[in-house]
């Protein structure tokens, strides 16, 4: 909560509902600066007093840093080193080797280690809990490696769009997809037809879980959010893709290594723990605030 007068510089987000949770509604007493290349797309999300710089973020950051160095420390300007993020090897937290489901954070850690750090795959996250787990836990050292639809968050966007990502790039594309979205629509068959290296990692919890858990977090009456148990490995194979089913972290890690190495279209059915709450509490608080406004 911003109480006294602040300066806020907004970089790298359009402040859409699903990324900023209407945080800007709380920007009273604030001088606001937006830096980015697509000001028209963000104007409606900004308070009227915001000052917009139509600029490349790296250029702006270098100029700002140099100006600060000159003004504050009276040191000569230095070129900025390229952004390079080092990632630790992730530890698998909840694998006891016998559980029948995988903790979603372990799924993210394996994607981070195998798909991102070791293989530089492109990653896309589908609407639903997948989006929250991925955006909260995954880290990238290169731009344009992660895609997520925060504008309308339409289910199906990346179940289908994954094929475009795989078609246009050398590295594999991995989609993090809810079972509900996978059943709604998909383009596995197209990837099989063209032999694109697309991997659908299905977060299988037999539920429209974001709706189920969101209602619970809002203390609302439950709705029927159940999805019949589905074998997505079989589903993938039926369409001509490779199909894998995993229910522990060790298996998932091995299967990810194999699927990425093979570069075939593949569907990985990951049985996840449906009772762990995703990191969407900020959004729930925003919704509660809007209801109470
Ligand atoms: C086309 C469309 N219909 C409905 C919604 C509303 N919606 C958002 S998330 C969600 C449930 C997603 O379920 P699933 O794909 O199984 O993912 P989970 O949340 O369980 O990880 C629904 C129905 C939407 N975003 N898009």
Give a topology summary.
Layout: E1 6-11, H1 17-20, E2 30-36, H2 39-42, E3 51-54, H3 57-73, H4 104-118, E4 122-125, H5 129-137, E5 146-148, H6 157-168, E6 173-178, H7 179-184, H8 188-194, E7 198-204, H9 209-217, H10 232-238, E8 242-246, H11 249-262, E9 266-271, H12 281-292
Parallel strand pairs: 1-2, 2-3, 4-5, 4-6, 6-7, 7-9, 8-9
Helix pairs in contact: 4-11, 6-8
The structure holds thiamine diphosphate.
Question: What is the fold named in CATH at topology level of the largest domain?
Answer: Rossmann fold
What's the number of helices?
Answer: 12
User: Spans of 5+ residues with little confidence (pLDDT < 50)?
Assistant: 78-98
The run of helices and strands is EHEHEHHEHEHEHHEHHEHEH
CATH superfamily of the largest domain, by name, is: Thiamin diphosphate (ThDP)-binding fold, Pyr/PP domains
Which CATH C-level class of the largest domain is it? Answer: Alpha Beta
- Which percent band covers the strand fraction? 15-25%
Name the helicity range.
25-40%
The first-to-last residue Cα distance is 16 Å
Total tally of structural domains: 2
Say how many strands there are.
9
Spatially, the strands of the biggest sheet line up as 5-4-6-7-9-8
Alpha carbon gyration radius: 21 Å
The CATH architecture of the largest domain is 3-Layer(aba) Sandwich
Report the structural category: alpha/beta
Largest sheet: 6 strands, parallel
